[in-house]
Design goal:
32% of the residues lie in helices and 5% in strands. The protein is mainly alpha-helical and 701 residues long. Strand 5 and strand 6 form a beta hairpin. The longest helix has 25 residues. The protein is elongated, with a radius of gyration of 46 Å. The C terminus is likely disordered.
Length: 701
């Protein structure tokens, strides 16, 4: 006997897998079994008759209405068979409709994405003005491919990428760098702050953050392989022509900088020594000038006499020498070079003592004969350094020796003095014969680097070969200024093989600082002297730059000693009394002929504009922020060449001075108000590993 079938007509619930329903359902007479999954009516009978003797009986249960009266048929079949025409369910009809709509939409989208005007149709918004003027000029179609690597591909290519995965293509950030490579180093453009990972690690260590959960961990995570920072992470496009592409929300900064700053006043650390992170390039003591020099001359010490606004008002420029310094320093400089700077000079020699010791140096001027006396000028010492034996002879006495120290009873010192006398004759004959060519070859050999024509013209500006030739002929008549071979044979040695003039490169120098001075021959002192014309004399600066720019100068004792002598505060011209010498981490020396200029300095993490601050009455006086520390030992800052080892002459600027105005409701306290994101490589780092002058002049073996 069949079990009672459920009555599907008692409710209208359609199961998710019920695609077909009984066609009688609309009349409320749906059959209990319902259609098959393929939409066919099963045509099920109400009962399954059973044979009882020679008769068939209906076995329909009482729950389904009991035995029927007319059934079964004589052949044992049920006469009540449920038949209908199955129809699709509402769910199935709806699914078909949705599928059709999806296909239509996909087709329309395919047509859209295949059209020529697709880029304009799918653009999420207008470009910022900076990009729009480059990519959408003259109403032409936008050049999306300039920024989006996949913009030049067809819709089929996009579909393939979705299935097969992203293929190797130029990234969007790399496309950005095709235009911005001149302002941001492409090598590390996608690293945090576009700095090399090791530089960021070093900054983290310098800042003293050893906590792995703070900046150090963030830096390591950010710079791990494959974790580059895409340009679009911070620079959001398609927000309209007036959108600020450089605006970065504070939350974006604190994604990496894990120390959360709720406000500048409460959470930001104090400034430390900022902005005094190195000594000034020009040696200037504000406290001494205010309390002594200006007071003695009864002048008012006003910062604005020397510190001037630029055209924008944002940067303070330093007044030039003529405006700020000349009235006091011109006289001192003129006094230091009143007799001229000796370039070539003959010392006084005890010819009799040399002859007694067996050293015949030939003719030596009577005016320079007597007790040993006199110093070799630094420039002359450099020219002698190219000789084969002269450096050893000078080293025997010491690079800064004076002939006054020669012991007439010491055979070794007398022999060294004789060698120097012969070397001086050889050098003077060579220079008088070949002029500037000989000077260049000798300097190139002494410094181990090429000296260009431009450099040669700079430090010999105005010098006449006739001046040298006339002096040598008058002082040393036994020297043949037309042929130096006889001198070489007399002393039994020859010059080192100098570089040929063809191998000497040419360097482009800045325009001279001032007109060149005059070269004079002084027969009273047997010297050729140079009289500088004015401050910033091109000849003196060229000699100093020549030595400073020599690679591995510390490995050339004579040249290093000459540089040290010329950079003494009391050296002729007094150059180094105001212009400091810096040494980089790589050991390179640089003379600071110019004061600090923000326009030419590396872009650092911190920025500041004087313009909006100097309009405030309480800040018009510079000392309201820059307070002079009268007790600071500023002079000690220039004891060596490390610009970051110094004693600041100003009191540090406190955060308290800024926090009263820089709040979220007043002047603003966003990170970008004072900080740059993109910086130049090396910014924020102090000089590490610089050596002192004594270490430079006496390097360890």
């Amino acid at each position: 006997m069949r079990e009672p079938a459920p009555d599907y007509s008692s409710h209208h619930y359609q199961r998710p897998n019920q695609v077909w329903v009984c066609g009688l359902a609309c009349d409320g007479q749906a059959c209990p079994a319902g259609p098959t999954a393929r939409g066919h009516c099963p045509a099920l009978a109400e009962c399954a008759p059973v044979r009882n003797g020679d008769r068939w009986e209906c076995n329909r249960s009482a729950l389904r209405g009991g035995p029927c009266i007319t059934c079964p048929t004589p052949d044992g079949k049920c006469c009540l068979v449920n038949k209908c025409r199955p129809v699709r369910s509402l769910r199935a009809i709806r699914a078909r409709f949705v599928t059709a709509c999806t296909l239509i939409a996909a087709g329309a989208l395919t047509i859209l994405l295949s059209a020529d005007w697709r880029d304009r149709a799918i653009a999420p918004g207008p470009l910022a003005g900076q990009h729009a003027q480059l990519l959408e000029r003259d109403g032409s179609q936008p050049n999306c491919a300039a920024c989006h690597a996949a913009a030049d591909r067809s819709v089929g290519g996009w579909a393939v990428s979705l299935v097969t995965g992203q293929e190797e293509r130029t990234s969007q950030s790399n496309l950005c760098m095709e235009c911005h490579d001149k302002t941001i180093p492409a090598t590390h453009a996608l690293a945090a702050h576009n700095l090399p990972p090791e530089t960021l690690q070093q900054i983290t260590q310098v800042r003293g953050s050893n906590e792995p959960t703070l900046l150090a961990r963030a830096v390591r995570a950010t710079l791990s392989p494959g974790e580059e920072l895409a340009c679009a992470t911070c620079h959001r496009e398609h927000h309209g022509a007036q959108a600020d592409l450089t605006a970065i929300d504070d939350a974006a900064c604190q994604t990496c900088h894990r120390q959360k700053f709720e406000s500048f006043a409460t959470d930001h650390p104090d400034f430390g020594n900022w902005p005094y992170e190195r000594r000034t390039r020009i040696v200037f003591n504000h406290a001494t000038h205010r309390a002594k020099h200006f007071a003695e001359q009864k002048k008012t010490f006003d910062c604005r006499q020397c510190h001037l606004d630029d055209t924008t008002g944002n940067v303070q420029l330093l007044a030039n020498y003529e405006t700020a310094c000349a009235s006091c320093h011109d006289e001192k400089i003129a006094t230091s070079v009143a007799r001229g700077v000796p370039m070539l000079a003959l010392p006084t020699l005890d010819v009799d003592a040399l002859r007694t010791a067996g050293h015949d140096i030939g003719h030596w001027p009577m005016e320079a004969t007597g007790d040993f006396d006199g110093r070799l000028p630094p420039m002359m010492t450099l020219l002698l350094a190219a000789d084969a034996d002269a450096p050893d002879a000078i080293t025997a006495f010491g690079a800064d020796f004076d002939f006054l120290d020669v012991d007439s009873d010491d055979p070794e010192q007398l022999a060294a003095a004789a060698l120097l006398a012969a070397a001086m004759k050889t050098m003077l004959a060579d220079v008088s014969q070949r002029g500037p060519v000989a000077v260049r070859e000798r300097l190139s050999a002494a410094l181990g680097r090429d000296v260009s024509d431009a450099q040669l013209n700079a430090f010999l500006a105005g010098m006449s070969a006739d001046t040298v030739r006339g002096a040598v002929g008058a002082w040393l008549p036994d020297v043949d200024t037309g042929n130096i071979e006889w001198i070489n044979s007399m002393v039994g040695r020859a010059l080192r093989d100098p570089p040929t003039s063809d191998s000497v490169g040419r360097a482009k120098l800045d325009p001279p600082y001032a007109p060149a001075g005059a070269w004079t021959r002084d027969d009273a002192t047997l010297s050729i002297r140079y009289r500088p014309a004015a401050h910033a004399d091109p000849v003196l600066t060229a000699w100093l730059d020549l030595l400073a720019n020599t690679p591995d100068l510390s490995q050339r004792p004579l040249a290093a000693a000459m540089f040290n002598e010329l950079t003494k505060a009391t050296a002729p011209g007094l150059c180094a009394s105001c212009h400091s010498v810096d040494q980089s981490e790589q050991g390179k020396l640089a003379i600071n002929w110019r004061a600090y200029d923000r326009a030419t300095e590396q872009r650092g993490f911190t920025k500041f504009s004087h313009g909006p601050h100097l309009v405030l009455p309480q800040l018009v006086d510079c000392t309201s922020c820059h307070s002079i520390d009268d007790a600071a030992n500023t002079a000690s800052s220039y004891a060596d060449w490390n610009p970051h080892r110094f004693a600041s002459e100003f009191q540090p600027i406190s955060k308290r001075a800024c926090a009263s105005c820089h709040t979220s409701t007043a002047a603003g306290d966003r990170c970008q108000s004072c900080h740059n994101y993109h910086v130049d490589q090396g910014s924020g780092l102090g000089a590490q590993g610089s050596v002192s002058k004594s270490q430079f002049l006496n390097p360890e073996p």
